[in-house]
Amino acid sequence: MLPVAAVAQQVPQEGAAAESAKRAITFTTEASVAAKAADEAAERRAFYGYPIGRTFWYKPSESKMQAKFYQRLERHPVYASHFELAGEMRPNTTASFKVLDRIALRPAFASMEAKYAYRIVFEEGSRAFMDEEAFGSYRPGKPVGAEREALTRSPAATADFLNTRLFIEDPEALATQYAVEQERKAREAEEKRLAQQAQEAQWAAAKEDRDRKLAANLATALAQAEAAEKAVHQERLREIKRKGGVRLGMTPKQVRASAWGTPQRVNRTTNKSGVFEQWVYGNGGYLYFENGVLASIQN
Question: Could you tell me how many helices (H) and strands (E) the chain has, helices first?
Fold first, then answer.
């Protein structure tokens, strides 16, 4: 029987199709697992080591999820090598504190990981302890420094009455900065409102001016139209006076030569009595002819 390596080398290749079917394969090995574990261990140490030697600020809020402080350590009643945080307390005012070091509360045992706490000192000298989770819980790939979720330098957080995070800068200075920023935003908003109001007033004035000019132009056009109509009417009257009106007994030719002129429409009726015509004019006038003689005038 051939060795496994020799058998593997004898796997047939089916030309270009087999070549294109190849794919990259990666393997998890003991070395890669160990390297990943080492990287995560270093990242974890960096995460929990970041607070040590640094100063942070606590600002009271109404949230019950805020970080807690403890006055002392007490030995576990059953496990002599285990300690517990005891004597919970919270500052009533904004207070700064420095993290001195990280101490073990219990070693890892069974399926439980080791537990740690931070030893701190407040700005006025009193010492206390904090659970290490007050600065956030380690998750692979999450920020290990000041960008973690449990910390903030946001000025807006100083105004959050349910803030649960610790500050990495003095919240009173941040609050002043926040107030200045809010005042600036309010001023900009007011300036924007006034500018918009001025723009709208300018638009309204321009519209009013356009409307006034339009009304004046319309009035001028109406006056000119009325004057033109009056002139036409007067000319018509002079023409009527010059040509004269119509009278019964006139022929169609005489009527056309008169001030009435040519009608807009002629309605003709023929029966055994003769030919009857109705001449229709645009001014509401009607002339009636019987057998070529004007017999009736309706005006």
Answer: 5, 12
pLDDT at 207 over 50: yes
Q: How far apart are CA 183 and CA 189, in angstroms?
A: 10
Cα atoms found within 13 Å of the Cα of residue 52, Cβ hemisphere only? 11
Instruction: Give the count of beta carbons closer than 10 Å to the beta carbon of residue 219.
Output: 10
Give every CB contact of residue 289 below 8 A, 6+ residues apart in sequence.
Answer: 252, 275, 276, 277, 279, 295
How many other CB atoms sit within 10 Å of the CB of residue 280?
13
CB 216 within 8 A of CB 209: no
Neighbours of 254 (CB within 10 A): 14
The residue that leads in pLDDT, 284 or 17, is 284
Q: Evaluate whether 130 touches 118 at the Cβ level (below 8 Å).
A: yes
State the SS3 of 76-90: CCCCCCCEEEEEEEC
pLDDT, one tens digit per residue, over 117-176 is 999 999 999 999 999 999 999 999 889 999 999 999 999 898 898 999 999 999 999 989
Contact 118, 65 (CB under 8 A): no
pTM: 0.56
Mind listing the domains of the chain with CATH numbers? 39-177 (no CATH), 241-298 (3.30.1450.10)
